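[scheduler] slot 2 assigned
[scheduler] job type: sequence-to-structure, two independent chains
[scheduler] chain ordering preserved from manifest
[runner] begin chain α
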Amino acid sequence: MNTQANIVVGMGEALWDVLPEGKKIGGAPANFAYHVSQFGLPSFVVSSVGDDPLGNEILENFTSKGLNYIIDKVPYPTGTVQVELDQNGVPVYDIKENVAWDNIPSTEPLLELARRTKAVCFGSLAQRNVVSRNTINAFLDAMPKTENSLVVFDVNLRQGFYNKEILCNSMNRCNILKINDEELVTVSRMFGYPGIDLQDKCWILIGKYNLKMLILTCGINGSYVFTPGKVSFRPTPTVEVADTVGAGDSFTAAFISSILQGKSVDEAHTIAVNTSAFVCTRKGAMPILPKSVMEIEG
């Protein structure tokens, strides 16, 4: 019996981004799941927090937002990231180590969630520690292996918390790869094909890992969605940027939500671009999205 529902899971780090103006809840999985929920799909955050005031505040915040979660309390401090913004509003991160989200336990409730999951998004950062890495892999193993399952690897290279083995394993397990232009250069150099243009690198990755899609974001220079035999390109809208924290996560959430709701790749790409641009106009990673950015006009 197929018990799979349209449940969408963001799995990995849940933490506090300590910004110049104060702290805001962050972490790519939480950002992703929050924005998926705004598109009307059931979403879950999977992570861990400490048994401390910062952890309690995260859980209270997610509850107040109506977010579903499986977040265990573990005997490590809740994660924090010191975020400084450069002159272009682009975040520079100092990510604390040996924290709660490095130690996500694999539990029966988590595996039961996996068996009902239609789409999951995970990254490389949460795999820097073997405990969370093994839990992520166990979750992926427990997911239904159907044609319509979406396993999204959002590369998210941070502070050297990655290696070739983790990247290869993750790319082998995903069917949608999300990567930005700077990460693509790093990955290509690591994998031994640095001298070709970005699009050719994307086609190589699609073929090598048998991907359904590859999403390439290039900041102000637009974004691409590669599918076998076709490329969708969208320019980046010009907006007044407050900060770019969480913009990429909102892009991924909007795109995956739209695909699950039956939109075409081109339509989903347009919605993702508009959603990400809106998030850039607000401080922090979890603004409330207006209906206008979540829909295709006409």
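[runner] end chain α
[runner] begin chain β
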Amino acid sequence: MAKYDYDLFSIGAGSGGVRASRVAAGFGARVAVAEERYLGGTCVNVGCIPKKLLVYASHYSEDFEDAAAYGWTVSQRRFDWTPLIENKNREIARLQGVYRELLEQAGVERIEGRACIVDPHTVRVGDRRFTAEHILVATGGWPSVPETPGIEHAITSNEAFHLKELPRRVILVGGGYIAVEFASIFNGFGVETVQLYRGPLFLRGFDDDVRKALAEEMRGKGIDLRFNLNVQKIEKTHASVVATLTDGSTLEADQIMYATGRLPATRDMGLVEAGVELNSKGAIIVDEYSRSTVPSIWAIGDVTDRIKLTPVAIHEGIALAQTLFGNRPTKPDHEDVPSAVFSQPQIGAVGLTEARARERYREIEIYRSHFRPLKHTLTGRDEKTMLKLIVDGASNRVIGAHMVGPDAGEIIQGIAIAVKCRATKAQFDATIGIHPTTAEEFVTLRAPVS
């Protein structure tokens, strides 16, 4: 008779938890996964997928405007928020069903409810208890808001996906990718949009040229960016919210949305009581193999506060299953992970920023191009694209690639393969470009900037 009910009990059915559970079951492990909210986690329900759908929708305003330059006559336009949200909800429900089927096909038992850890080998869900040789925590993160007076009148990205109607005026508070993306989304729908950030420039952690280029483009599209400003208090009136800022001024809007970060979802789970060590943010501290300070408890994804990206959580989940049940101990690889910000225009990035490269390498070369895309030579739109390569002067290896412009995420995905393979600038130069494309600029940058 087996010592435990399961070989692996996963807490959280997001991208990472589901992938780890499925792969582990594929290796023959007895696996269960518990989820208290919705299958697919943040990415499927209130993150990557619905956000990208809203990004697509919001860009049609520019597409319709640009169509005239290419001979198209577009009749009177009108945007309706309700069918967009209904269609989005229908797609999310479909994806939840896909996740459900994937777990069933893999033989993973699905348990609905909030799971708490009782001890290193026991999990409680409601009144039921389950034992497992290994417990995986993959509960992701949750929006974090400051204790600003009146904060109860604000929403987060979670609620933004389910608004009953589109606001006419919105205030975005925050300087991360979620704030930037939603500022672009609302602005694309014609909403009067103000974005506030307490620091001198948003998107901390991205390359400085990228940050500056995007700020310029967003302002050019009509977004009111205000840096070095924060909200002191929020007041609710009969028909609006009023934010008093740190400079004493006030802003009135229909909605105020906070995108001021996400914290690991580890509260009241019994982790500390079981001996699991957390950091100051509440994230689970893990070793190179995703093992916590309790040998039988593991953690992957945003709950570990490493790299908060869905593909990274999936990668960590696969590595964990291989380590535990595939007879192949595997460390997740967190080097040269590409990322994108679906702002308008987009950001794509892989490798080191210029600042980080200067810290790590004695001599670097910078290649940069700033130009109007071919499409806008007819539209007259004053939108610019910026591309940048960072090269180690000693080895000639490309150690960073950054872009601001249409389809940046799609383009950087391909460039990321070259960066991961440690390609040199000479190899980039030897690659023939596809003309006319924006991507060809990455293989035609010849002269480094001073």
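[runner] end chain β
[qc] chain β: The chain has three domains: 6-142+263-325, 151-260, 339-443.
[scheduler] slot 2 released
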